[in-house]
Amino acid sequence: MAVSGSREVDIEAPPADVLAVIADLEGLPAWSSIHKKVAVRERDDAGRPLVAEMTVAVMGITDEQVLEFTWTDTSVSWEVVESTQQKSQSARYDLTEDASTETAMVFGELYRNNSEWKFRAVGQGYASGLAGIARDFGVNV
After folding, report:
1. How many C-beta neighbours within 10 Å does residue 49 have?
2. Range with the lowest mean pLDDT among 19-28, 75-84, 94-103, 106-115?
3. How many CB atoms lie within 10 A of CB 17?
4. How would you classify the pairing of strands 104-113 and 49-58?
5. Does residue 58 fall inside a structural domain?
6. What HEC string does the chain produce?
7. Which domain holds residue 58?
8. Residue 108: phi, psi to the nearest 5?
């Protein structure tokens, strides 16, 4: 069963700054507990990842992935081209200039549905920062 979705959020930053954060794949393990290891195999002329290997672990299940990225000045998309657990995964972020009050964001969710791993691009912004995310997941702050 395929899962798809779309969501729009506002981030108070220029698209170039947002794309720079997304491009910092090696930094994922520092703030995303499911990302255990990330290595960029190939970069474009601007230094952005084109091909990356990732080890992702959720609820005791580990997935070794290879992702291919496509970049423009205002967007990034990626597809899983190799995976030990998933049949497919693709996502895309399109950015436009538009200011708002969001200070934290959930970009995606990795979950297991029956015997298959799924990834859902979320793009949920929070004006209440990390405390807002924590409250949505039942954490008292």
Report:
1. 23
2. 94-103
3. 12
4. unpaired
5. yes
6. CCCCCCCCCCCCCCHHHHHHHHHCHHHHHHHCCCEEEEEEEEECCCCCEEEEEEEEEECCEEEEEEEEEEECCCEEEEEEEEECCCCCCEEEEECCCCCCCCCEEEEEEEEEECCEEEEEEEEEEECCHHHHHHHHCCCCC
7. 15-136
8. -165, 170
Q: What is the pTM of this model?
A: 0.66
> What confidence tens digit (pLDDT) does each residue in 56-66 have?
998 888 999 99
The partner residues of 82 in beta bridges, in order of sequence, read 66
Angle at alpha carbon of residue 84, lines to 82 and 87, rounded to 5°: 65
- Our count of domains for the chain comes to 1
Three-state SS annotation for 53-64: EEEEEECCEEEE
Q: What's the chain's Rg over C-alpha atoms? A: 15
